[in-house]
Specification:
heterodimer; A: mainly beta; 9 strands; about 40% strand; B: mainly beta; 7-stranded mixed beta sheet; about 0% helix
């Protein structure tokens, strides 16, 4: 059970817009810590999609965007394409899990996106 | 090209020891942190811990402290187990981060570890 909660699955038709939520609490997202998002295509390593809440690395299409408000964050994908079918993970930092030798970097449970 | 290249798949028996590797190239390896992430078959990502190869500063997730050991030299990071369990079966990824808890911008291809009697 992750401290960051994502819906297990979302779906959408090609061309549509979908959003994926990532809900935390005051020890992580709500505490002001950055949220990062990763895309994992089937059978491949994850890839950084969004960093520092809303920034896109070079090469990531602007169809992908993200935002954060309070203790939640969301990833939006517009103009859905078949190639977007993948697992998506949010990541943040949880201060309640950290001390001088421990680090509370945490992932959400992941969301499987199906393109209908 | 900036990349992390991991060692190959491993099949081990319970109780055996193992050390897997992650070699960085195309950047100053000792200037970035290297994290390890586990993914059990069909499951999500789990952050295990992180090391700074420049000074060997190492931090573990509370869930993984004592379960495995992270180390590094000037070009390669390592993840090792002294006594494997069946529950250690999974894909292990190494990743690069500029600091803790920055995003992982580079990922290795993964090393599959299978522990079975």
């Amino acid at each position: 059970q992750s401290v960051l909660t994502q819906p297990p699955s979302v779906s959408g038709a090609p061309g549509q817009r979908v959003t994926i939520s990532c809900t935390g609490n005051s020890s992580n997202i709500g505490g002001g810590y950055y949220v990062h998002w990763y895309q994992q295509l089937p059978g491949t390593a994850p890839k950084l999609l969004i960093y520092d809440n809303d920034k896109r690395p070079s090469g990531v299409p602007d169809r992908f965007s993200a935002s954060k408000s309070g203790a939640s964050a969301s990833l939006a994908i517009t103009g859905l394409q078949a190639e977007d079918e993948a697992d998506y993970y949010c990541q943040s930092f949880d201060s309640s899990l950290s001390d001088s030798s421990l680090s509370g970097v945490v992932f959400g449970g992941g969301t499987k996106l199906a393109v209908l | 090209e900036v990349q992390l290249v991991q060692s190959g798949a491993e099949v081990k028996k319970p109780g055996e020891s193992l050390k897997i590797a992650c070699k960085g190239s195309g950047y100053s390896f000792t200037s970035y942190w290297v994290a390890w992430v586990r993914q059990k078959p069909g499951k999500g990502l789990e952050w295990m811990g992180i090391i700074h190869p420049g000074d060997s500063d190492t931090r573990y997730s509370p869930s993984f402290q004592g379960q495995a050991t992270i180390s590094a030299d000037r070009s390669t990071a390592y993840l090792q187990w002294s006594s494997l369990k069946a529950s250690d079966t999974g894909m292990y990824y190494c990743t690069r981060s500029a600091h803790v808890p920055a995003a992982s911008d580079i990922w290795g291809q993964g090393t599959m570890v299978t522990v079975s009697s």
